[in-house]
Design goal:
- Belongs to the HpcH/HpaI aldolase family.
- This is 4-hydroxy-2-oxoheptanedioate aldolase.
- GO terms for molecular function: aldehyde-lyase activity; metal ion binding.
- InterPro entries: Aldolase/citrate-lyase_domain (IPR005000), HpcH-HpaI_aldolase (IPR050251), Pyrv/PenolPyrv_kinase-like_dom (IPR015813), Pyrv_kinase-like_dom_sf (IPR040442).
- The chain is of the alpha/beta class.
- The chain has helices at residues 19-28, 44-57, 70-78, 92-99, 125-134, 144-148, 150-154, 166-172, 182-198, 209-217, 228-250, and strands at 7-14, 30-36, 60-64, 83-86, 136-141, 162-164, 202-205, 222-227.
- It has one domain (7-250): Phosphoenolpyruvate-binding domains (TIM Barrel, Alpha-Beta Barrel), CATH 3.20.20.
- An eight-stranded parallel β-barrel has the order 1-2-3-4-5-6-7-8, surrounded by eight helices.
- Helix 1 (19-28) packs parallel to helix 2.
C-alpha cells in the first residue's frame, strides 16, 4: 500500500477494472475511485473482485451503476461499494423510489444478502443501522426534471448527496454538447446551493481547470479529477508531440 496519504476528496474515474490504473492513482494520493459501470467495461465477476481490491488499496469506491433499478444498486452495495451513484433519475418522485433500494427497511427497501458485507454470516439491527449510515446513495442530477427537483431530492432521507452529470444535463436542458458555458455553470451553482442548504455534499466530474476551480469554490464534497482514458490520451499525446517537435528540430 502506498505511503502517500489518500485524500478521499479527489477521485479517479475508471472505465474498466484496471489494477495498474488504480494502484497508480492511489500511489499519487487519490483517495476514491468512480467506477463507470453504466458506460464502462465491468461485469459482475469484475466487480466482485475489483471492489475489494480498491478498498484494500485504501480507495473509497463510488459505483456508478448500470441504471436506476433495484438489481444494479443492490449488487454494487453487496460487493462492498462505499457509495452508489444512480444515473437517469428523472425527478423527486423517481428519486424517492429508486434511492430506497440503497437503504434497508424501514428507511428504504434494500434486500438483505448474507455475503461479503456481513462476513458471510447473519446480521443484527446494529449492522443494518451501520450499513444505512455508512453506505452513501448519490442520485445523479443529469436530467432537467432532476435539476428542477434538486432540493426535494436532497431532502429525501434515503439520499446522502448528489452527483452531477454535466454532459447529459446540458443535452437535456437543450443546450447541446457540454461546452462549460454560462448556462452550464448556472446549473452547477443551482446544485451547489441546494446541497449547501440541505447540508449534504455534491460531487462533480471536474476534468477542466475551470470546473475544478468552480467545484472547490462552491464546496463540492468530492471531485473526479480525470478519466482513465483521458489521462492515457494526455500522457500519450505529450510524449508524441514532444518527440515529433524534437524530430523537426533535428532535420
Amino acid at each position: 500500500m502506498s505511503s502517500v496519504p489518500a485524500d478521499r476528496r479527489y477521485a479517479v474515474w475508471l472505465s474498466d477494472p484496471s489494477h495498474p490504473a488504480a494502484e497508480i492513482a492511489r500511489g499519487i494520493g487519490y483517495g476514491a475511485a468512480v467506477l463507470d459501470i453504466e458506460h464502462g467495461a465491468f461485469d459482475l465477476a469484475d466487480l466482485e473482485r475489483f471492489v475489494p481490491f480498491l478498498r484494500a488499496l485504501g480507495l473509497e469506491v463510488l459505483a456508478k451503476v448500470l441504471g436506476p433499478e433495484r438489481g444494479p444498486i443492490q449488487q454494487a452495495l453487496d460487493f462492498g461499494a462505499d457509495a452508489v451513484v444512480i444515473p437517469h433519475v428523472e425527478n423527486a418522485a423517481h428519486a424517492k423510489a429508486v434511492t430506497a433500494f440503497a437503504k434497508f427497511p424501514p428507511l428504504g427497501d434494500r434486500s438483505f444478502a448474507g455475503g461479503r458485507t456481513t462476513g458471510y454470516r447473519g446480521f443484527t439491527d446494529e449492522w443494518v443501522t451501520a450499513q444505512d449510515r455508512g453506505t452513501r446513495c448519490l442520485p445523479m442530477i443529469e436530467d432537467a426534471g432532476a435539476l428542477e427537483d434538486v432540493a426535494e431530492i436532497l431532502a429525501l432521507d434515503t439520499v446522502d448527496g448528489v452527483f452531477v452529470g454535466p454532459s447529459d444535463l446540458s443535452l437535456r436542458r437543450e443546450r447541446g454538447a457540454y461546452t462549460r458555458e454560462e448556462g452550464d455553470f448556472a446549473d452547477l451553482k443551482r446544485v451547489a446551493d441546494a446541497a449547501r442548504a440541505a447540508g449534504k455534499p455534491w460531487v462533480l466530474p471536474a476534468w477542466s481547470r475551470e470546473e475544478k476551480e468552480f467545484a472547490l469554490t462552491h464546496g463540492a464534497g468530492q471531485l473526479a479529477l480525470t478519466m482513465q482514458h483521458g489521462a492515457l490520451i494526455a500522457g500519450l499525446t505529450a510524449a508524441f508531440e514532444e518527440t515529433t517537435s524534437l524530430a523537426k528540430q533535428a532535420r
